[in-house]
């Protein structure tokens, strides 16, 4: 229990964020959707019926603290491993100790920080001890466990999603830290503007707020917004380029452009740039959207997107951010059509279903000596010999029927629909919007 108590008790030589860890569930700030009165996780802890769990959420939301509180509430031994620095040999030592304590009637709560970083083999090593109750596993992860934790382990755990703290929760944390004896004890004055700025820059992360508060208090007894800005330099944006928030932000970015919301698209662009995302990655996503979601409704969108990609590669940041913003706002406000993409998807599906892919004889290249004898090119009609360079002849393989491309009536694709209807008797006029 020594590690558990040391992390929860007031020790003046510890960082403020550690000293201010909640000592009871009632002191825990935020996460009321899982820890509020009567909620399943809280009931399980209070009734000492908690099994192994995964706590999934962004940094600074209380995953480690909650594991410590679980051990304290249930009077269990607390052990901690880091999936970044510890491996199976370290796990074996914990398991050996846990077996001894189990025989003596005491359970062991094992916190594995960043559990998603363990390999499949390392995660497999946990299975028998989770299953037989040797340990109560609390896996802490900032990444989506449905992607990064093996299914065999997930099936033996309950997963709880922790959310970034809202502004009111952060204010509560900051005020307690400034006034309580184990915090700053009221020795420093925090101005309302400084409190507002702390909340604004912390992105729902209590650790960021407390670290900034402690740094400011070390510089002055009066903590102002300007002092907070000085010690933090720049707002911390929660964004892991290889992690879940990366994918969620990119998803929101694409969906905002697709949904013609230029303001939201630019906001997510700004977030990615502030977090240091590779601008070439952003540019690639814009190019893909220009073809997939705008298509022939505004063919110029692909030109703009491709030009932005080239500009990003040639001039770099920060200037390329302006070009990305231009491309994003253009694509967001452009008329939308995914009909060209749908045409490809329909054709691909037809091929997967077993459609004939043999090129008709009259379309085959007849440039070699034996071609005529094989019937290659016979009966082919050269389009430019006909009015408007349009000819009625079959181009699809035998047995394959369209239509695959059905233009919408949006933007330039309206003109394409008219052309197709007027000149291609094998095409179908658009019926969908």
Question: Strands, helices and their partners?
Answer:
Layout: H1 2-8, H2 16-19, H3 32-35, H4 40-46, E1 53-56, H5 63-73, E2 77-82, H6 88-103, E3 108-113, H7 120-124, H8 127-131, E4 136-141, H9 145-148, H10 151-154, E5 158-161, H11 167-179, E6 189-190, H12 192-201, H13 206-217, E7 222-223, H14 225-232, H15 244-258, H16 262-274, H17 279-294, H18 300-315, H19 320-333, H20 339-352, H21 413-423
Parallel strand pairs: 1-4, 1-5, 2-3, 3-4, 6-7
Helix pairs in contact: 1-5, 11-12, 11-13, 12-14, 13-14, 15-16, 15-17, 16-19, 17-18, 17-19, 18-19
- Taken in chain order, the helices and strands follow as HHHHEHEHEHHEHHEHEHHEHHHHHHHH
Write out the strand line-up for the largest beta sheet, numbering strands in chain order: 2-3-4-1-5
Q: List the uncertain runs.
A: 1-7, 425-433
Mean pLDDT: 86
Which sheet architecture does the biggest sheet show? 5 strands, parallel
Percent of residues in helical segments? 40-55%
Q: List the total number of helices.
A: 21
Secondary-structure-based class equals alpha/beta
How many extended strands? Answer: 7
Overall 3D shape = elongated
Over the alpha carbons, how many angstroms does the gyration radius reach? 31 Å
Q: State the separation between the terminal residues, measured CA to CA.
A: 66 Å
> Which percent band covers the strand fraction?
5-15%
């Amino acid at each position: 229990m020594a590690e558990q108590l040391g992390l929860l008790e007031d020790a003046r030589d510890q960082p403020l964020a550690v000293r201010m860890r909640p000592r009871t569930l009632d002191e825990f700030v935020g996460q009321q959707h899982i820890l509020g009165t009567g909620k399943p996780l809280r009931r399980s802890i209070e009734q000492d019926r908690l099994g192994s769990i995964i706590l999934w959420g962004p940094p600074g939301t209380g995953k480690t603290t909650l594991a410590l509180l679980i051990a304290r509430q249930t009077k269990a031994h607390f052990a901690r491993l880091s999936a970044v620095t510890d491996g199976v040999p370290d796990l074996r030592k914990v398991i050996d100790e846990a077996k001894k304590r189990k025989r003596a009637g005491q359970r062991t709560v094992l916190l594995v920080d960043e559990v998603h970083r363990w390999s499949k083999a390392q995660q497999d090593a946990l299975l028998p001890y989770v299953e037989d109750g040797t340990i109560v596993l609390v896996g802490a992860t900032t990444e989506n466990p449905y992607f990064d934790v093996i299914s065999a382990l997930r099936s033996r755990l309950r997963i709880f999603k922790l959310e970034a703290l809202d502004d009111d929760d952060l204010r509560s944390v900051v005020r307690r830290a400034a006034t309580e004896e184990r915090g700053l004890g009221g020795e420093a004055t925090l101005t309302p503007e400084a409190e507002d700025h702390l909340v604004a820059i912390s992105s729902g992360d209590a650790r960021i707020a407390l670290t900034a508060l402690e740094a400011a208090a070390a510089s002055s007894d009066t903590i102002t917004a300007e002092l907070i800005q000085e010690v933090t330099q720049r707002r911390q944006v929660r964004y892991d380029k290889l992690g879940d928030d990366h994918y969620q932000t990119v998803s929101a970015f694409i969906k905002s452009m697709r949904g013609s919301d230029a303001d939201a698209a630019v906001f997510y662009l700004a977030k990615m740039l502030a977090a240091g995302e590779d601008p070439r990655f952003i540019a690639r996503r814009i190019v893909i959207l220009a073809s997939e979601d705008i298509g022939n409704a505004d063919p110029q969108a692909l030109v703009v997107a491709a030009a932005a990609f080239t500009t990003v590669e040639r001039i770099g940041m920060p200037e390329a951010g302006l070009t990305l913003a231009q491309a994003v706002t253009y694509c967001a406000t452009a008329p939308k059509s995914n009909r060209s993409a749908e045409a490809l998807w329909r054709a691909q599906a037809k091929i997967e279903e077993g459609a004939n892919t043999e090129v008709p004889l009259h379309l085959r290249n007849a440039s070699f000596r034996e071609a005529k004898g094989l019937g290659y090119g016979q009966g082919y009609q050269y389009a430019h010999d006909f009015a408007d360079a349009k000819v009625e002849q079959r181009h699809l393989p035998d047995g394959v029927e369209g239509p695959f491309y059905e233009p919408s009536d949006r933007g330039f694709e309206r003109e394409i629909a008219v052309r197709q209807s007027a000149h291609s008797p094998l095409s179908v006029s658009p019926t969908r919007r």
